[in-house]
Amino acid sequence: MIKPNMATMLAFAATDAAVAQPLLQRLLSEAAESSFNRITVDGDTSTNDACVLVATGESGVEVLENTPLFEKFSRAVKELMLTLALAIVRDGEGATKLVTISVEQAQSAEEALQVAYTVAHSPLVKTALFASDPNWGRILAAVGRAGIEQLDIDSLQIYLGDVCIVERGGRAASYTEEQGQRVMDLEEILIRILLNRGDHDERVWTTDLSQDYVSINADYRS
Amino acid sequence: MIKPNMATMLAFAATDAAVAQPLLQRLLSEAAESSFNRITVDGDTSTNDACVLVATGESGVEVLENTPLFEKFSRAVKELMLTLALAIVRDGEGATKLVTISVEQAQSAEEALQVAYTVAHSPLVKTALFASDPNWGRILAAVGRAGIEQLDIDSLQIYLGDVCIVERGGRAASYTEEQGQRVMDLEEILIRILLNRGDHDERVWTTDLSQDYVSINADYRS
User: What is the DSSP string of chain B?
Assistant: First the structure.
C-alpha cells in the first residue's frame, strides 16, 4: 500500500535555519512533489499521511528567497526528501529491487507520468524485474497501453541503464541479452523511456513484484 | 497478461443459422464488448487477439433483425461469449477465485468502468481476495482513489454477495465478519459497488493475486 499522495507515512524534517513560513511551505510542496509523490510500490494509496518541515531559526542563519543560500538550502531539502522517499520504496512489501522509471521527451508532465505509472504498476513488468529478466517486450507493451494518443512506436527508445534495448518499434539492433542481463542483475535499475515528442521529463520510483509481496499482503491475519 | 481489448486470445464461434454479415458483425461487437472486453487478470494487455463468429447458413434457418428469433439468437451468442471469457479468467495465472465487480448507479458507463477496473487491478484488493479476507477497507480505498470527481463517500454502498459491508462512509452497521467470511470463502465472489449518482451499470470479471501468479510470470525462463 505505497503510492503516497501521500500514503501511510509520516515524514518529519527539521532545520535550525530561519526561513519564512510561506517560502518554507512552497519549498516543502515542491520537494514532496518530486519525492514522496513520485514513489509507488503497487499503486494502492492510503488515507493517512503527513509531511512536516520545521525551521526553528535556532542557528540564526536566515535563508532568504532568490539567494544562493536558498538554492543550496532548497537542494539539500529536496535531496533529503528524496532519500527518505527512496527508503520507503526499498522497504516496500517483498521488494528486492529499487527501480527508477524515467520518461523523457514527453509532450507534457501529465503524459510523462501517465507512461511512467503504467510501466511502474504493470504486474508483468514488475514480475520480470523480480526475475531479473531484461524483458523489453513487457516494458514496450506497457508503454503501448498507457493511453497516449498518436504515440509513434517507431521513434521511441527504451534504455536499461545505459543499454538501448528498444528502437524502431522492436528490439534494438545493437542489443545483446548479456548487456541487458548485466543491468537487470543489479539491485538498483534505471529504465529510461524516450518518447521523442516533446521536452517534458518525469521520473518515478518503484519496486519489483515478488511472492513475498503477496504473502505480506495476504497472510497478515494468520 | 490478460485484459483483452482483445488479449492473447483466439476465439472462434460458429452457428449453422443464416445471418446477414452486417447484423452478425454488430452482434459480435456487442457480445465481445460485454464479455472478452470486460475481463482482466492483471491489467496487462497483449498485441495479439481475434474473435471470429461464423454463420454458415447450413440449417436453412434465417435469423432476421428485429424478430423474436434474433433476440433469442443474440442472447445465446452473448451467453456463449461470456462463458468463454469467464473460462479465460478462471484459467488466469495463479487464479483461485472468479470475481465479478459490478459498479452500479454511476453517472456514465466510463465512470462505472473506471471504478470497476481500479478495484479489479488493486493489488491490495486482489491479495485480500486470495486470502479470502472480507477486507472492506481495501475495496473502499480503491473506490476512493479511482479518480471520480465529487464522489460522495457517505452515500455509496458496497456489497459482498448479498451482504452490505460498507455504508455511510464506513463499515455497515449491520455487518458482521462472519457474514463477509461466508461470501469470501466461495470460489466465485460478487462485489457490488453502488455509487448512488446515476443509472449506469457495468461489470467486469477478474481474479485474485496469488504467489503462483508471481511464480508463473517470473519463473518462466528457468
Answer: ----SS-SEEEEEEESSEE-HHHHHHHHHHHHHTTGGGB-SSS---S-EEEEEEE--TT--EE-TTSHHHHHHHHHHHHHHHHHHHHHHHTSTT---EEEEEEEEESSHHHHHHHHHHHHH-HHHHHHHHTT---HHHHHHHHHTS--TT--GGG-EEEETTEEEEETTEE-TT--HHHHHHHHTSSEEEEEEE--S-SEEEEEEE----HHHHHHHHSTT-
